[in-house]
Amino acid sequence: METYSLLRQFADSWMLLFLFLFFIGVVFWAFRPGSTRTYEDTANIPFRNADKPASESAAQPEAQK
Questions:
Q1: CA 50/CA 27 separation, integer angstroms
Q2: Where are the alpha helices (DSSP H) in the chain?
Q3: What angle do CA 4, 8, 13 make, to 5 degrees?
Q4: What is the reported pLDDT for 33?
């Protein structure tokens, strides 16, 4: 069996299964129960400080507060 045929057969079977399982894992990771707060915070970034410039404390990342 030549290399191309072997790689093509592998891609059509096991790699397809691996990539499908990876996709399902990413979907479950994105929609897990604890992620809502993180995504809501990220989604609201454009609306922060809309009326006035950011203060010093708002400019610091959460980990440094």
A1: 32
A2: 3-10, 16-30, 36-43, 56-59
A3: 155
A4: 85
> Whole-angstrom Cα distance, residue 60 to residue 18?
40
Token pair 């691996």 in the structure block, residue: 18
pLDDT at 21: 96
Helix (H, G, I), strand (E, B) or coil at 12: helix
Contact 21, 31 (CB under 8 A): no
Q: In this predicted model, what pLDDT tens digit does every residue of 1-54 receive, in sequence order?
A: 799 888 888 888 888 899 999 999 999 988 888 888 888 888 888 888 767 666
Query: pTM for the complete prediction?
Result: 0.53
Report the alpha-carbon distance of residue 30 to residue 25 in Å, rounded. Answer: 9
